[in-house]
Amino acid sequence: MTPGRDLVGHLARFAEALRERGVRAGLSDEIDAVAALTLVDISDREEVRRALRIALKIRPRDAGAFDELFERLWGSRDEERAARNRPPKDRRGPARPGKVLPAALSGQEVERESVTGDTPGYSPEALLRRKPFDECSPADLAAMERLISKLALRLATRRSRRLVPTRGRGRVDPRRSFRAAVATDGEFLRLARRARAIELPRIVVLCDTSGSMDPHSRFLLAFLLSLRKEARGTELFAFNTSLVRLTPWVSSGRIAPTLERLAAGVPDWSGGTRIGESLARFVIDYMDEMVNRRTTVVIFSDGLDRGDVAALEGAMRAIRSRAGRVLWLNPLLGDPRYEPTARGMAIALPFVDVFAPAHNLESLEKLLPLLAA
User: Fold this and answer.
1) Helix axes of 214-230 and 255-265: crossing angle, nearest 10 degrees
2) What is the pTM of this model?
């Protein structure tokens, strides 16, 4: 295995080696392991071993594979003995007598700050983008606000393929340039130009706020609230046992207080769910006004419906017949073991153009081209 340039990259390769041996070690476990290594003496091999075993949640049956890979990738006892007799290369001296750094880091300076990472894909921002919503804390939401706002702004300012006249930079428009030259006796005083238009997305979002969606819905709604601030044509709805239009609730304030206000004001928040009846209410009360062939309808839900599946089928058929595209975003789809066998999800899928995961910020980022299409 190629030696890593820093501690975080080395840890990522260690976790990948564990997964190759069948040991469960997810990205959230890696994040915990990075945090754990900031709390121990990184030059003490046994402290590192204990910290990693706890943070990576190594099960007893996987202990043998963990120990074997740790011996191989984090320095052996022979290397430790050699390290005791090796003169220190760092002018400031070794970290502590009798200790050894991970094999891939020998001869490198390691400080606690290195866990912030300078390897692409393993910076704190990248780790936060990949952290599953159901493992995030309120503090994570606060840290995500800036990333969420940037994500929403990218969607709201996405340029289309359509070219429109512009007074600034852009492609020369020969036809309009010649027409303008006619008025000046054939002299081209100024070239007419065209540029790609900013395509304001027409999006209607229906977000499931039932109990099974609670670990995800706050983060999904945070993205949607930011999107609404940037793209005024976005309409937001919440549903559980009933449907509530959220658009009038959106303010220019911070996301967290708005979410608290929604949680207190939306009936049966984190309660049961009747997807079919809620979508049928949307069809009756709002669809004619808000949905046409240029509209993308997005449904955030795990598809766990306790209501009438016949109502769900009828509502999905009506929405699909009118909307330009229908996206169903399911946070459970982030787990590769998930299969859409719940009856509500199985009923809805024939009427869905795109079925995709929405379990972290990275998955939402991948949806931007689809939402803007």
Assistant:
1) 120
2) 0.58
In this predicted model, what pLDDT tens digit does every residue of 134-162 receive, in sequence order?
888 877 777 777 777 777 776 655 555 56
Angle between helical axes of 214-230 and 138-156 (0-180°, round to 10): 40
**Rounded to an integer, what distance in angstroms lies between the CA atom of residue 90 and that of residue 8?**
21
Collect all residues with Cβ–Cβ distance below 8 Å to 83 and sequence separation of at least 6.
75, 99, 100, 101, 106
- For 238-260, letters b (16+ CB in 10 Å) and e give bbbbebbebeebbeeeebeebbe
DSSP 323: S
Interstrand relation of 235-239 and 354-357 (parallel, antiparallel or unpaired): unpaired
Phi-psi region at 117: left, alpha or beta (left = phi > 0; alpha = psi -120 to 50): left
For residues 174 and 190, the answer to whether their CB atoms sit within 8 Å is no
96 alpha-carbon distance from chain centroid: 41
Rounded Cα distance between 71 and 22, Å, is 17
pLDDT: which is higher, 279 or 54: 279
Cα radius of gyration (the chain): 27
d(CA 179, CA 289): 40
Q: Specify the pLDDT at position 199.
A: 59
Give the amino acid at 264.
A
Strand (E) or helix (H) holding 260: helix 255-265
- Quick: pLDDT tens for 272-295: 889 999 999 999 999 999 999 989
DSSP letter assigned to residue 74:
S
Rounded Cα–Cα distance for residues 37 and 216 (Å): 28
Taking the domain 103-154+200-371, which CATH number applies?
Answer: 3.40.50.410
* Sheet (strand 159-166) strand order: 159-166, 193-198, 171-172
The C-alpha atoms of residue 227 and residue 235 are separated, in whole angstroms, by: 10
Contacts of 158 (CB under 8 A, 6+ apart): 198, 199, 201, 368, 372
Q: In this structure, how many other beta carbons lie within 10 angstroms of the beta carbon of residue 148?
A: 20
**Residue 297: strand, helix, or coil:** strand
